[in-house]
């Protein structure tokens, strides 16, 4: 691959954020309970309410951001921009309007910018968690934004 890209080493123990909108929380919680043993091998983050429920139902330790509508999605997005999150599990609700829809879209967008694995529903989460990369090392390719950052501004 050309020098427009660079490699980032993702370690075995990953920083994972879990988020679910209200109508999807039960689905994410049941999924997390089922996969608690695997999730325990990683550092877990979550938006406020999702995180509290995850801790209660799985017994796993979770670092909680603010609740989503209060800025939690943006905090997760900032972590991604800083290279502090390796994987996003975000069960968002396609059938309910969210007051913080711009934040949700920003989070999804920045995850794509940094080529962060992103599961937005349970079957995608199943595919990710059963991948050898989930608990193994992975070398990620991201766009090298040096050219963009050094561009001449008009
Ligand atoms: O709204 C959310 C994500 O957009 C989730 O936030 P909570 O986990 O605080 O409910």
Automatic annotation (TrEMBL):
It catalyses: dihydroxyacetone phosphate = methylglyoxal + phosphate. The gene is mgsA. Coiled coil: none annotated. GO terms for cellular component: cytosol. It comes from Fluviispira sanaruensis. InterPro entries: Methylgl_synth (IPR004363), Methylglyoxal_synth_AS (IPR018148), MGS-like_dom (IPR011607), MGS-like_dom_sf (IPR036914). The active site is at residue 73. Keywords: Lyase. This is Methylglyoxal synthase.
């Amino acid at each position: 691959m050309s020098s427009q890209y660079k490699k980032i080493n993702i370690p075995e123990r990953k920083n994972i954020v879990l988020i679910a909108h209200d109508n999807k929380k039960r689905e994410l919680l049941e999924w997390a309970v089922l996969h608690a043993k695997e999730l325990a091998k990683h550092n877990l983050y979550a938006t406020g309410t999702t995180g509290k429920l995850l801790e209660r139902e799985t017994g796993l330790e979770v670092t909680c951001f603010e609740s989503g509508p209060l800025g939690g999605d943006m905090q997760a997005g900032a972590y991604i921009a800083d290279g502090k999150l390796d994987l996003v599990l975000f069960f968002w609700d396609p059938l309910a309007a969210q007051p913080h829809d711009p934040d949700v879209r920003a989070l999804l967008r920045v995850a794509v910018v940094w080529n962060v694995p992103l599961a937005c529903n349970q079957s995608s989460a199943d595919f990710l968690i059963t991948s050898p990369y989930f608990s193994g090392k992975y070398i990620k390719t991201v766009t090298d934004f040096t050219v963009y950052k050094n561009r001449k501004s008009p």
